[in-house]
Amino acid sequence: MTTKKKRVLSGMRPTGPLHLGNLHGALLNWVEMQATYDCFFFIADWHALTSDYEDPGKISGYTLEIIKDWLSVGLSPEKSTLFVQSDIKEHAELFLIFSMITPVPWLERNPTYKDQMVQLNNKDLSTFGFLGYPVLQAADIIMYKANGVPVGVDQVPHVEITREIARRFNYFYGNVFPEPEAILTQTPKILGLDRRKMSKSYNNAIYLSDSPEEVTTKVSQMITDPQRARKSDPGDPGVCNVYEFHKLYSDPETTAGIAKECRSAEIGCVDCKKIMARTLLAALAPVHEKRDYYDSHPELVKNIIQEGCSKAGKVARQTMAEVRHVIGI
After folding, report:
1. What pTM does this model have?
2. Which domains does the chain have, with CATH numbers?
3. Sheet holding 148-151, edge to edge
4. 63 CB neighbour count, 10 Å cutoff
5. How far is CA 203 from CA 64, 192, 211, 218, 282, in A?
6. What pLDDT, in 10s, does the model give residues 97-147?
């Protein structure tokens, strides 16, 4: 007797190409989850409009690029449903219904809303769409009756709002939706070239689609121990971003040797970076190989998206038929 897999759902906004922070922060975990969960992963292109509504021209292009990145790191259309949010119009309908029952104070107390209002102060975010994006997010998740949402600890409040909306809907209309659990993921420390959070907006990222030459150049620009002015000065691996990458990508023997030689000034930062670049490129070689394949087969990528949207659409239509029935509209 087989046990039905629990369903998980997560998505990414198409605001730019994916980088190593996305790989370690989410994608590698998604790939592993395919073995034990019924996985739904989607491109949240409507969500991208909450901050990029003035210039949406790049969203469709980024959508294709992200799907190719997903396929290149190991997400499989045979194991997961990969789809695009805006192709499933039922998301908008459920968002509308949820917006009718969601109290405004729930949205105003959302910590991410407050943080992004400060961080993105170069954009006008005083819109209903930005305030209400947790409601759309809830519709995305609840539409597929997901049992869990893989998130980092900073995103747990998003899942809690979704749970509250599900409870409120069930209270008014009957027990229709499960309350999804946050599935906490452990993510390794990985910073950008300048030791800030790796981010497209900081221009400090190593992208999955970067060529080997671009990766090598970027590694050579990484900030190391700021107190080490000369090769003859002892270094401190504990404050060196390159060493953090060695811990992720180099074997334990190499990593231990780098730490020892850095502290005794037996190796300089330039040589350390060269070793890191070679190790990183070796780790990314399978990703780059798959990426080249999908770049040269655009119709295959489009077919994968169409098939994923067809599967997701079938589930969404079933859910909305049930929602309309219990509401009576």
Report:
1. 0.93
2. 7-190+298-327 (3.40.50.620), 212-291 (1.10.240.10)
3. 80-84, 38-43, 7-12, 148-151, 181-184
4. 21
5. 21, 9, 16, 11, 24
6. 999 999 999 998 887 766 666 666 667 778 888 889 999 999 999 999 999
